[in-house]
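Lab notebook, design round three. We kept the backbone fixed and only want residue identities now. Task for the bench partner: fill in a sequence for the structure below.
Input structure tokens:
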């Protein structure tokens, strides 16, 4: 056993540092807080954006009015569609119209969100039934082409194509 190999027992706690208890402790006068004023206070200091007193970068920029869609989160300006791939409709009964409500009832979707979008994703061995009918659904271009080739009736949502 050597002095360098000594360590405290497992699970033991180190003795806490007592501040301001004499020069022998090494924590006298300012007690580890540094100088006076702003730096002593809890949360004190200048902050990461302080530039030594010159006008900060954010205030030197020209003032822009209004909202920027790029700077905002998705929930404010964009639509979040629930996605259904074509192969998920391979077992669909053509007599039942495909709408957001019917997709939720049949367990294809949990949440409709801002609408439903049909994508052209396929899987080997799964084909689209003939004569499907759609209502209140948006289509990708590949899904639209595949469904029109299969003789589906497509009714799109107004304003979305």
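Proposed sequence:
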């Amino acid at each position: 056993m050597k002095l360098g190999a000594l360590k405290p027992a497992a699970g033991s706690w180190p003795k806490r540092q007592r501040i301001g208890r004499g020069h022998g402790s090494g924590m006298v006068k300012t007690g580890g807080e540094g100088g006076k004023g702003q730096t002593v206070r809890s949360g004190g200091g200048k902050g990461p954006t302080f530039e030594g007193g010159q006008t900060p970068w954010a205030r030197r920029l020209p003032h822009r009015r209004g909202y920027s869609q790029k700077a905002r989160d998705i929930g404010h300006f964009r639509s979040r569609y629930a996605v259904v791939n074509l192969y998920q409709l391979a077992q669909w009964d053509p007599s039942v119209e495909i709408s957001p409500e019917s997709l939720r009832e049949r367990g294809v979707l949990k949440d409709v969100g801002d609408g439903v979008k049909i994508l052209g994703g396929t899987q080997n061995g799964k084909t689209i039934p003939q004569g499907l009918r759609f209502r209140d659904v948006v289509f990708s271009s590949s899904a639209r082409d595949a469904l029109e080739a299969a003789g589906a009736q497509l009714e799109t949502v107004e304003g979305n194509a």
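Keep this in mind before ordering anything: Residues 94-161 form a domain with the Ribosomal Protein L15; Chain: K; domain 2 fold (CATH 3.100.10).
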